[in-house]
């Protein structure tokens, strides 16, 4: 993953419903659109595949603005399926920030780097 000097890391976690190529293509399109929308104050730093999820990693010094841009960029039908989590500094634990009422423990379980 790319190194960054941003204070916060966000993870967008998409459910991996099946291994269909069109699902992965859709994910790559979303990642590309996010990269364009988040230029400047925020940085797309990579993605990975987990057993049941696809993660996109972002870095930002203004996570509230990053979340706002994410919500404006991702289509509503996709936004309803994702979880966005945030951590600050070098901490290992994430806090779910979307959906706002979600209280689950959040983990990034990587299968492939």
How far is it from the N-terminal to the C-terminal residue, by CA? 9 Å
Give the topology string: H per helix, E per strand: EHEEHHEEE
The CATH architecture can be given as 2-Layer Sandwich
What is the fold-level CATH name, i.e. the topology?
Alpha-Beta Plaits
**Residue windows where pLDDT falls under 50 for at least 5 positions:** none
Q: Roughly what fraction of the amino acids lie in strands?
A: 25-35%
Binned, the helix content reads: 25-40%
Strand order of the largest sheet: 5-4-1-3-2-6
Structural class from helices and strands?
A: alpha+beta
Give the integer mean of the pLDDT values. 85
Question: What labels would you give this structure?
Answer:
single chain, 113 residues, alpha+beta, Alpha-Beta Plaits, 3 helices, 6 strands
Please provide a brief summary of the model:
By secondary structure, the protein is an alpha+beta fold. The protein has a single domain (8-103), classed as 2-Layer Sandwich (Alpha-Beta Plaits), CATH 3.30.70. Helix content is 28%, strand content 34%.
Describe how the helices and strands are arranged:
Layout: E1 8-15, H1 21-37, E2 42-50, E3 53-60, H2 63-73, H3 76-79, E4 83-88, E5 95-98, E6 110-112
Antiparallel strand pairs: 1-3, 1-4, 2-3, 2-6, 4-5
């Amino acid at each position: 993953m790319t190194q960054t000097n941003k204070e916060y890391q966000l993870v967008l976690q998409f459910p991996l419903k099946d291994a269909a190529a069109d699902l992965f293509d859709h994910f790559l399109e979303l990642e590309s659109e996010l990269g364009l929308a988040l230029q400047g104050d925020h940085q797309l730093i990579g993605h990975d595949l987990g057993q049941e999820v696809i993660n996109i990693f972002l870095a930002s010094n203004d996570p509230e603005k990053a979340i706002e841009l994410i919500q404006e960029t991702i289509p509503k039908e996709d936004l309803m399926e994702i979880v966005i989590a945030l951590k600050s500094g070098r901490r290992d634990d994430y806090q779910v920030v979307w959906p706002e009422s979600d209280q689950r423990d959040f983990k990034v379980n990587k299968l492939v780097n």
